[in-house]
Amino acid sequence: MQSPLSLQVRAPDATATRTHARLSVRLREETRLEHKSVEAACGLPGAVRHLSDYSSCLLDFYGIFSPIERHIATFTECSYLGLSMQKRARVPYLQQDLRLLNVDPDSWREAPAQALPALPQFAFALGALYVLEGSTLGGQIIMSALQAQLRIPVDIPGGFFAGRGEQTGPLWNEFRDALDVYGQQYPEASADVIVGAKRTFDAIGNWFNENNNRFSS
């Protein structure tokens, strides 16, 4: 695996692009089952029926996203791909939403080390970032459904599920392109990226399954 100082991103190889599936495509296809499993574990939007459910859901995301994001940010290789973790962080949106709901984010425990995905090298962390970045997609649909079904006449804070507003698509495309460049230049690491994504999906699903008994019936 490349060290932070040796990782250099070069221009894409057109021949490799034509003859090999892009890493972003492989990730989508090879993590399809894990993605569906996480969706089932989160149970959105159906599992959220009251404002307390919504707060608990956000706390669950906070509890697992926060330590994963911190770990990804320790890999300085992100900067070589032009990926700013400060710009892409999802946790600040969770913190803002929770505080607007008068909930202290620190009131809910973070996932312990044994519940987190093992991300020993950058390639694995890049797979984890794929999962977190993917959470920005489709959130606006979830938000609309939640506002329609919650049994309270208020506009609930929705920064996390709103993704990044009008920048959601462009920032996702930027990340996808960086993934594909990495896959072209370091094809031997592609399998580790996929493993990292699978581990992250599994960790998030397990975390939600562990805590799903809090939801109202």
UniProtKB/TrEMBL annotation:
SUPFAM superfamilies given for it? Heme oxygenase-like (SSF48613)
What protein name is recorded for this chain?
Biliverdin-producing heme oxygenase
Lineage: superkingdom: Bacteria
For molecular function, the Gene Ontology terms on record are:
heme oxygenase (decyclizing) activity
Q: Which GO terms describe its biological process?
A: heme oxidation
Q: Which organism is it from?
A: Massilia polaris
CDD domains recorded: HemeO-bac
